[in-house]
Design brief:
The protein is mostly helical. The chain is built from 6 helices and no strands. It is flat.
Length: 158
Amino acid sequence: MNKITLLTMATISMLLVNLVLVGLMWTHRPTEEDEPRPEMEPKNIIIRRLHFDGDQIQNYESLIQIHRNSIREFERKILENKNALYQNILNPNNSVADSLEQVIAAFTVQIENTNYHHFKDIQKLCRPDQMEDFKKLTTDLAEFFVNHNKMDRHSAKD
């Protein structure tokens, strides 16, 4: 096989691969379902399910900011300690790894504690007539940030 035949075959093969890739990209374009929908965000699900009024929404948005700042700080500290943990991977002293793992675990517990208290604060925003809706919401809290679609399905039942 001479060089010209080899180059021709390689060019044709690359052209076919490119055409297949373009075809796949064209047929698998993102749809509206793939795009994030604001009404599916946890914040908006909570507002809708608890039937918050304007003042409650404003107070809730303040709580969200405080919550997000706290969570970001804990996540930053977790990342910092994970980096230290993996930088010590070649260190034969396991006590350093053990202590870093305990620190990471403690920050993870603090995140869960922060989430718990965040929802307790949301509960305080509710009027007595909204407490039944809040009670229904609590059945979904464990999965709340994992699967937003489940939350919306439940709200259709309410």
